[in-house]
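Pasting two entries for a bug report.
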Amino acid sequence: MTTRIAMWSGPRNLSTAMMRSFGSRIDTFVSDEPFYGCFLKDTGAGHPMSDEIIAEMDCDWRSVMASLTGPAPDGSPVWYQKHMWHHMTGPIGYEDFAGFTHAFLIREPERMIASYLRKREAAEFKDFGLERQAEFFEREADRLGRAPPVVDANDVLASPEAVLSELCEAIGIAWDPAMLSWPPGRRDTDGPWAPYWYAVVEASTDFGPPEADEVELPDDGQRVADQCRPYYERLAKYRIRP
């Protein structure tokens, strides 16, 4: 039986480092944003490397979903799937993920947007998918009768072992100290967009230090952060605290 972990995130939320962490486990296979190609093909969004991504990925929503509900590609008992909220614009919805274990990765809006603006010229509220995040979180909480696990990126940086060990307990897998570090470099499981987005994580060997500095955004970025703030706070009150 495969344990499928759907880790739901927005962009620039420490999501690739978290994928590295789970990929360091000997019992876990990881998948990197499997619906990205579907999103780009359907929306025509002008993302970096969009043509290459569409060419390399399965871009049929139903086909991707069918593959994610099968066995892990390498037969591992745990399958960690990194998903992005803003990609979920097609026909796949909450009910299609029956049997998955869901977790939610969040980040303070100002830090998330500052990181995003280091790679792109502008940010819009729709780039982060937070309305869908809140809807999905609430539906999963109703199903469970309690909040599903929520992890804040800066809490992971501040106390990785404390937060990740509690996350493992919450999602029903054993804690593995191998999750605290990894070899540098690219992985075969990285998405085709890695050359544009993953330089920092490819050079990393662990999560690194917590973010202590205050963040200053341009006025347009701050307006987007203000739009994101209520959705962040809705989930942050349930986050695993170190």
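Entry 2 (this is the one that rendered wrong in the viewer):
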Amino acid sequence: MTPSTDPAASPSPAAKPRFAYAVATVFGTGYLKPGPGTWGSAVGLFIAVVAHPFTWFYVLNATFLGAGLGVDLSFRSGSLGIAVALIPSVAVWLFLALLGVKTSRQVAKFAGVKDPQYVVIDEVSGVHLSLILSLAPVTPMVFLKPEDATAFALYSGMSILNWKFLLAGFLLFRLFDIAKPFPCRRLEKLPGGWGIMADDWMAGVYAAICLRLALHFHWL
């Protein structure tokens, strides 16, 4: 019996996961040269600034007050003030982190590479995490008190718009992302997208610790 030579009988190649590629490369940022990770980190910095509610309050205040409308958009005090200052940034990070795990796994599987260089959603997520953690309203002993919410909102908001803070966060994250101190190398061995993302999260933690110390000693 002669084997079939019908092209339809041979398995067709898997379709390229275009949405996953768009997200994992941050809409082509991962193809920029030199250093796609550096470009991805820069995008992550921008997203972190835009995701922080103080940025929008600042812009809206400047817009409306500049127009003479007298609109007061200051942060509210109490627990609600803490939530307003925290939840949007954390929610955006969590969304991008989980989306990054899924899409980076799909891209790596399609490309047949453990961690493609053009996947930069991990840098976006990592540098964002470094800024969130460095501004977290906690001390080693106690969570921020509700009556301190207004001060925290101003502190975190002015920090996220401070170019020295942003530059330091960017440089520190890139340093730890490249150096990969313990346990970054081990985290890279996690399966699928978790291995691609987790080492950058750890780099973000190291960068956050340094940023927190810099803020504490008023170096920024």
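Dev reply: Rendering is fixed now. As a check, the viewer should reflect this: Confidence is low (pLDDT under 50) at residues 67-74.
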